[in-house]
Amino acid sequence: MTASIIKLDTTAEDHRIARMAAVALGLTVLESAIPSPLPGVKPGLANIVTLIVLARYGWRTAAWVSLLRVVAGSLLFGNFLTPGFFLSLSGATLSLIVLAGAQHLPKRWFGPVSHSIYAAFAHITGQMLVVYLWLIPHAGIAYLIPIFATAALVFGTVNGLIAARFMDNADIASKPMSEKPA
Amino acid sequence: MYANALQHIKPGDWLTLLLGSLFVVMLTLTLWSGDLADKAIIRSGGKIFREVPLSPDQQIKVPGPLGISVISIQQRKARIASDPSPRQYCVRQGWLQQAGEIALCLPNQVSLELIGHKKKYDSLNY
């Protein structure tokens, strides 16, 4: 039997995506330790990473990071292909679609806070769609929407502020160097 | 620290925040304001005893196995005013106003249900 080595050619962008997805995964794990008053109301800390990647490297990289985080996170928690996984996936997908539009808002007026709020609303919309169309096809879930929407607004704002602030710090820190990963 | 956080909010972000808040308020108002009820259905022993509109104020006496339950309707609200049941749950439930609300006096087999113009489903009959 001959030892074979599979060598994948990876680019600098692949490394960047992997690194950022790993950070997002770390935040997902951290977040799962935070108790939630209502299933579904979560701060979504991993989205901070998505926002930063979007601002730095563009939408394509952000989409990779976000979707990798969803898939790898589900493997990590053992809920791959379970309802919870599809909830994350639909939320992340709709967020990315909205971010694809929101990133073109004029930079002078709109920052990560706006991106974050729009993405948070899109996230909860995607989740409610899956819940309604698949899991609980009952009009009663409409009563929960105001709670989720409020959470989306609050956590969206907070995550956006964290992302904005983080980018400020990283910009100052990376000034002397040509490129420093966030 | 707060001032520091605020400097990251650009003018357009304030607009987003404003729109988002309005959106949430609108959602809450539309989704959490139940239909006001139009009619009350009074059941006794599982059968409909009477169906009454909520417009004229009135008192209705409903007989049951334990005695008489009194239902009062006032200003488009309804309640069970008195009941012979030992624990008085349905009386303590107070005024019912929104469609879908229901008060049950199980020992006396009397129930008061409010309905709007469209019948809503609940988890029991879904």
Task: List key phrases describing it.
heterodimer, A: 182 residues, mainly alpha, 6 helices, 0% strand, globular, B: 126 residues, alpha+beta, 2 domains
Please give the radius of gyration of chain A in angstroms.
18 Å
Please count the helical segments of chain A.
Answer: 6
Low-pLDDT parts of chain B are none
CATH class of the largest domain in chain B: Mainly Beta
Note the overall shape of chain B. elongated
N→C terminal distance of chain A: 44 Å
What is the count of helical runs of chain B? Answer: 3
Q: Which strand order spans the largest sheet of chain B, edge to edge or round the barrel? A: 2-1-7-6
CATH fold field value of the largest domain in chain B: mini-chromosome maintenance (MCM) complex, domain 2
What's the multimeric state?
heterodimer
Give me the secondary-structure category of chain A: mainly alpha
Number of beta strands of chain A: 0
- Please, how many domains of chain B? 2
From the spread of the alpha carbons, the general shape of chain A counts as: globular
Give the helix/strand class of chain B: alpha+beta
Percent strand of chain B equals 25-35%
What percent of residues of chain A are in strands? under 5%
CATH superfamily of the largest domain in chain B: N-utilization substance G protein NusG, insert domain
The poorly predicted ranges of chain A are: none
**Main sheet summary of chain B:** 4 strands, antiparallel
Commentary on this structure:
The complex is a heterodimer of chains A (182) and B (126). With 182 residues, chain A is mainly α. Chain A is globular and about 60 Å long. Chain A is 69% helix and 0% strand. In chain B, the strands form two sheets. A four-stranded antiparallel sheet of chain B has the order 2-1-7-6. A three-stranded antiparallel sheet of chain B has the order 3-4-5. Chain B has two domains: 31 residues; 80 residues, N-utilization substance G protein NusG, insert domain (mini-chromosome maintenance (MCM) complex, domain 2, Sandwich), CATH 2.60.320.10. The longest helix of chain B has 22 residues.
